[in-house]
Amino acid sequence: MIKVGDTLPSATLQEYSEVEGEGCSIGPNPVDVTKATAGKTIALFALPGAFTPTCSAKHVPGYVQHFDDFKSAGVDEIWCVSVNDAFVMGAWARDQKTAGKVRMLADGSGVFANATGLTLDLTARGMGVRSNRYSMLVKDGKVASLNVEAPGKFEVSDADTLLAQAKG
Predict the structure, then answer these.
(1) Are 148 and 132 in contact (CB under 8 A)?
(2) At 46, phi and psi to the nearest 5?
(3) Would the pLDDT of 130 be above 90?
(4) Residue 48 near residue 120 (C-beta atoms within 8 A)
(5) Residue 55: CB partners within 8 Å, gap ≥ 6?
(6) How far is CA 163 from CA 4, 9, 44, 154, in A?
(7) What residue ranges do the domains of the chain occupy?
(8) Which of 51, 80, 116, 159 has a CA positioned 20 to 30 A from the CA of residue 58?
(9) What secondary structure letter does DSSP report for 125?
């Protein structure tokens, strides 16, 4: 499992873009994790699935609500990563009103989740292998803090916890 001090794994996530711009076409666009984190501070949180109850009611809204606070704490971007396809993440972004605040990044095949070792097997619930629920502060591609939830919990990966670490 990835730990504090480790470099994020090399992977490509997908981001659904609603508008064309800066080399991004409408629809899914690749996001190279290594390039996208270089020289930046990223508040990254991951969760088991888009549109799931805890994720939609608590996890994403907390980060959207604290966007300005994260910026004030020196965070360049906020990322939400989930094992869903880019179309689902795009629809969830619209539903959660994350535009301009939280980048909703798809890890459709779970490559990033597997590479970090932060997977959650929800096969018994018909969801397959997903990402565990966690948050991390990433500085220039390296993990500065990591908060991994126990199964079924939402206690340490919330926006308030990661914001306090970003301010720290």
Answers:
(1) yes
(2) -130, 155
(3) no
(4) yes
(5) 47, 48, 49, 82, 133
(6) 17, 23, 11, 16
(7) 12-167
(8) 116
(9) G
**Interatomic CA distance for residues 53 and 22, integer angstroms:** 34
Distance CA 27, CA 112 (A): 20
Would you state the structure tokens that stand for residue 145, as one six-digit string?
Answer: 């803090």
Catalytic sites, residue numbers: 55
Helix (H) or strand (E) holding 67, with range, is helix 67-72
CATH superfamily, domain 12-167, is Glutaredoxin (3.40.30.10)
Q: How does the average pLDDT of the chain come out, rounded?
A: 93
- pLDDT tens-digit series, residues 64-115: 999 999 999 999 999 999 999 999 999 999 999 999 999 999 999 999 999 9
pLDDT for 20 = 62
Q: Which two structure tokens, joined as six digits, stand for 41?
A: 């501070």
Place of tokens 């292998």: 129
Distance CA 60, CA 159 (A): 8
